[in-house]
Structure formats: C-alpha cells, structure tokens
C-alpha cells in the first residue's frame, strides 16, 4: 500500500499540489483522474521520485519513500514516463534489457534474458527486437518502454498516460494485460488516464484530483458517481451500465 | 560485428603508428626514433582523450551535436592558463611548470568545470537549444576574457602564454605527457569498471533514476572525467575544435550501438588514428607547411559533411 499524507509540491505562491492525502491499495489498478492541470502527472512523478516534494510524506508499506535507497527502490517500483524518448540509439531488445539493470547491473544472465523474452512476447514486440527505437512508431516505442518497466519485475508499476499513441487494439490489450498483472501476480498498478471509460471500466480504485487537491477517492463502484464526475470535469457525465460495467456518456 | 570493427581500427592505428615512426627514417635513427616516439605517445593520448571526452559529454547531455569544445571546456582551460600567467607573472608561472604545474592546472580546471557545468546541465537539460546557446555564450566569454588578459600582459608573459597555447606536438613537455598518461590511465580504470552504468545514463535522467542509478552523483563524476580529459588534450596540444565531433560521429556510426564498452574504445582508437594520420600527412607530405589543426579540420570537415550527406551519421 502506498500512503500519501500532506504531500505538497511547487512554489509556495503557486502550489501545484496542496497537501494530498491518499491511499493506493496493493495488488489493484488505481487510476489517477481529473481535468487538465489537476496535478495527476505531478503526483505520479512524486511517487516515482522523479520530483522532490515541498512537504509531506509518501510511504510504501510503511517505509518512507523519500529516504529509500534508489537502487533498492528500483526493485520494488517501475515507472513509465509520459514522453519516453532517448538520445542514444538503442535497440528494442537492449532497451527492455535495461529493465533488468536493478537486478543484474548490466550483466544479463540466463534469467534476465528469459525475462526480456517474456516481456517481448507479452507486449507484442516480436520481430521488432533488433530495431532501433528511433525507427519505431510512437505506439511501438510506448510499448517498448512499458515492456522495459515490466521486465523490471517489481511489485509496483507506475504509468503516466500509457494509452497515448496506442490504437484501439493495443490500448485495450494493454489494459487487459495490466488487469492480468494485478489479478494474477498481485502487482499494484497506478496509471494516469485521460479516457474516463478506460479508467472506470478497467481500474479498481480511483483517486480524482482537481486543482491540486483530492476531489474524491475510493473503489470505482462507490467513489465514481455521475454527480462527482460531472463536478470534477465541469461537464455533464451520465453513467449507465453496459454488460454490468459502468459506462460514462459525456460526448454530447 | 562491432567487435571485429574495433579490431580493424586497432590494426589501422598500429599501421599508421608504424608509418609515422619509420617513414623517412634517416641519419641518427635512434635519436629521431626517440623524438618520434614521444610525439606518437602525445598524439595517441590527445586523440583518445578528445574522443572519449566527447562521447561522455554527449551521453550526459543526451545530444549528438554538442562537444566539450562547443560548450567552452577548452576555452575555459585556456582562460585558466592565461589567468595563471597574468596573475603570477612570467617568472612565477615558469616556476610551476612541469609536474606540479600540470597538477595545479588540472585541479583548477576540475573545480571550475564542475562549478559551471553542473549548474548548466542541471538548468538546461530539458531544453537543448538553451544548453547550446549557454555553451556558445560561455565559450565566447572565455575566449574574449582570454584575449583581454593577453592585451594587458607584457610581451614576455604573452610569449609564454602563446607557447603554452600553441604547443602543437613540436615541443612536448615530457613531464606533462607522463602526468597526462597517468591521469588517462586512472580515467580508463574508472571507465572499465563503470561503463555499464553509462549505458543506462544515456537513457536520460528520469529513466536512469527510476532504474535506481544515482544519476546526479554519476553526472558529477563523469563531468570530472571530461574536465580531466579535456585538460590533458588541451595542455598537450592546444584547442582542437572539430576533432571531438568528428570522432564521436564516426564512433557512433561505425559501432551502431549504445554500449559504452564499444563506443569508448572506438572513440579512443578513431581519435588517435585521425591525429597520427594527420600528423604524418602534415609532417611528411606538407612538410610542416600549415598546422595540424588545419589539416584535421579541413579533411575532417569534408569527411563529416560527406558522411552526413550519405546518411551515415545521425
């Protein structure tokens, strides 16, 4: 479980997050939702320790994340950033191999290579392993970065807008794979998603942010009501049930 | 494949070195050979240092156009040299030549480069254009400050600075060469143990940190290394603007790999090869009718443009 308390970020005059208190359950998919500029990516990057908070604390199973040793933390939590690109010319297979760095420090053994093959197969990258990253499409590159985080083999997986650049097929497959990872492997997954329907139909838990504050949070079925979503996005949102799953209607 | 290319590069370098040593060997051959050996050692050291420093800097800045020279590293070194002579006077500066002088210069260079470039890389990492601009402005500033100091000097001091700035492989300070080689051996040892982490660092600060790399500490160390290597190269022969860019482009396009275990040796070998071949052409074909820098930047410039147009460099 990730416990966040009193988390602040940004200059005192224009804070981006004003004291966030939230709990993110282990072994579940948690979606961070909210309008543009609400602070979703900032919160994710603070949990991922890509940013340093102005105050407050983040605890992972009781351990203070801000004090944790980076190399040890990398075996517990993997991150896929929003604009994933690299300056050097890396092949897809080698990129995924970097996911094994926290375990093998660059000396890939048989187990590491097996993990890389596993990740390649899971994210449909067969045939692309030898390609350079800058020769791939945006969606393929995105999948390569997700495969790298998967190969890191951590209990927690943080993804910042993983559906960007993905077509219908791959977006849906990715969410199904995340679902599978949470259910079968007990991984805790935190995602920032813009598409409300992807968020409510695939995730177990939501944390909704608005203007740098938590608007509401909790299990999807209880927390994400039509009134709350309407207020959150300042747009009329109707919730219906489609095959027993909530479906949001907000297009017109 | 890439490994075979490394071996081929090594073979070419050995051939070039042999050509440099034995072509036109007449008269008191033992004496001439000794002179040439010292010169060859300096050429190898400078080429390797410039090549490795550039590849390292490009890894840190995640950019394949920037080089330490473009960012003003060697201009900083020249400014420090000039400042030293201006501050201590010609007599004072000549007293600290040789090994202590080299050590002092390197230490000052390390401190200055760290202070400047840590801040610069930290603030402008997200914005390459800003980083290039800041580097170019810094380089120009260092050069103008150097020129300004030189105008204030008396002629004897100026002669001394000039001799230091344009040493150009003719009168090589053997103590400085030995110290430089020692420093490079230390750098090589560090790289031998840490080349894997550089591969991860090339992914950028965010991904590297999420993989558990203590990126900021690593960056500090690599900047130290770059400053030391640039000091070695600049102390031995003076500034060479284009060499680093050419070498790193060739190393990247020849190796087609992100692995520093391949890139760094390739850059060292290519840098050394270019300098040895250039010096051979300059001494034996052009009969010293120009400068080595002109030979390298002229031929190197053409080679670079040719490869760029052919799409071999990206």
TrEMBL record, chain A:
Cellular localization per UniProt: Cell membrane
Membrane topology listed for this record: Peripheral membrane protein
GO molecular function: ATP binding
InterPro entries in the record: AAA+_ATPase, ABC_transporter-like_ATP-bd, ABC_transporter-like_CS, P-loop_NTPase, Siderophore_ABC-ATPase
Matches recorded under CDD domains: ABC_Iron-Siderophores_B12_Hemin (cd03214)
Keywords: ATP-binding, Cell membrane, Ion transport, Iron, Iron transport, Membrane, Nucleotide-binding, Transport
Sequence ranges assigned to domain ABC transporter in this UniProt record: 2-236
SUPFAM superfamilies in the cross-refs: P-loop containing nucleoside triphosphate hydrolases
The UniProt record lists the keyword NADP: no
Entry protein name: ATP-binding cassette domain-containing protein
Automatic annotation (TrEMBL), chain B:
Membrane topology classification: Multi-pass membrane protein
Record bears the keyword Transmembrane helix: yes
Superkingdom of origin: Bacteria
Keywords: Cell membrane, Membrane, Transmembrane, Transmembrane helix, Transport
Annotated localization: Cell membrane
Transmembrane spans: 6-25, 37-57, 69-90, 102-122, 128-150, 171-192, 220-250, 262-282, 288-309
Keyword flag Lipoprotein: no
Family: Belongs to the binding-protein-dependent transport system permease family. FecCD subfamily.
Full protein name: Iron chelate uptake ABC transporter family permease subunit
